[in-house]
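Ex. 9. Protein: Bifunctional NAD(P)H-hydrate repair enzyme.
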Amino acid sequence: MRLGYTAAAVREAEAPLLAAGRGEALMRTAAAGLASVCRRLLSERGQISGSRVVMLVGAGNNGGDALFAGANLASRGAHVTAVDVFGKMHEAGAAAFTSSGGQTEAFNAENSTESAGLLRGADLVIDGVLGTGAKPGLPEHLAALIRDWQESATSGQLVIAVDVPTGVDASTGACGPTHVRATHTVTFGADKAGLLLPGGSDAAGEVTMVDIGLDMSAHVPAVHVPDDSDLAAYWPRPQAGDHKYSRGVLGLVAGSARFPGAGALTASAAVATGVGMLRLLAPAEVTQTVLQTYPEVVTDTGRVQAWAVGPGAPDRLTMQHAITAAESEHLPLVIDAGGLSLLTRPLETSCILTPHAGELSALLARLGTGAPSRAEVETEPVAHAVRAAQVLEAIVLLKGSRTIIARPDGTVVAPEPGPATLATAGTGDVLTGILGALLATTGGTDIDLADLAGLAVLMHARAGAHATHASHLPRALEADVLAVLDQA
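Predicted structure tokens for Bifunctional NAD(P)H-hydrate repair enzyme:
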């Protein structure tokens, strides 16, 4: 799992080292890591010696990191030019750079065209203008330079951002109207949250973290990015002596005469995930379809360990009864689609809500906390998902091309995007089935629900890589679940 921290947390972790006089040592360690990545990438493209490297250099430590790295590259035969963006470069870094043979060019509005041409012709551009403390929004002359360069740069040009791309918020991933679009970002001490979130992750490209000795143990990560190693470590496994009740029983309210397929997909996914028993409460149009393929599904009421309600516009009264039962028995539940329309207050039990952007917009409007449009939710998914999580005191899984899972405390889980094959009707119903099954099979454990939802999204994405439409997802899901279980 990759962990991302806010800029403030990283600065707090740096503070005792800076107070101890280790500032330059930290910079040289960071610069050495940056130079190492630059050398590797240049070598993969050809060779370091003779390569054309242009650096955009700001006034602060970010620029100092770039200058020390540039000195390293120049000493190995690269032709390195530093464009002094603000007319005040890091003194020690500039001295090391010029003594290694690097060239410096001052930038101003009058020579913007020449500077942009220099950038466009480079094999490698190093963006060392602004660091973790900067916010989106650039002076117009700098924004014009970046636009002029990147809109007509050579296809495949290497662009390495130092710590965070200029114009990107290191904590939130928010991007200004003009920002550097990097192929790679080399960040220091800890992954910055903004590099792992929508917007920032696209601008950052491939992120490499260089360890400079920061102790982040006292700081809560703002972002968790789970990966396949987490599936292997935390996916629930059947144990010797288990039976159907100890494995977990899921109560499912899904499907209707109008949308019977949604109920069938959700039920199929829950069974494929490996729930001990599935109790399906649905009309005959749904249950008949499910029983033809999964005769083990029970279509009657009884004890359960978790609930999932909402896919396929189920009967509102049946959904409300399930939600009431979950609250009275303190059982976890997943609420999707039609079930979201029943929410008017925080529930008195743990739950995961799974809206898409349009449903989240409607939910926030109904709760009286503002009415963002669907487009606004899609533009700022993290902010709106967190707001909903805080208002409803629940885990909010905002579905989209990049799924965001928000906790009420403002931290988020942000799995990598799944394959585009998941952009079809019914795949959200499959995700609800996975989530419900995981809630049932992990009942009684202390696993964090947002982390659990992250596992579900990862497994959903794996299955999506082996299916072109929702009907085949449960079959692919079962194969992927078995593959993870075999890793034990």
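Check your answer against this statement. The two ends are 18 Å apart (CA to CA).
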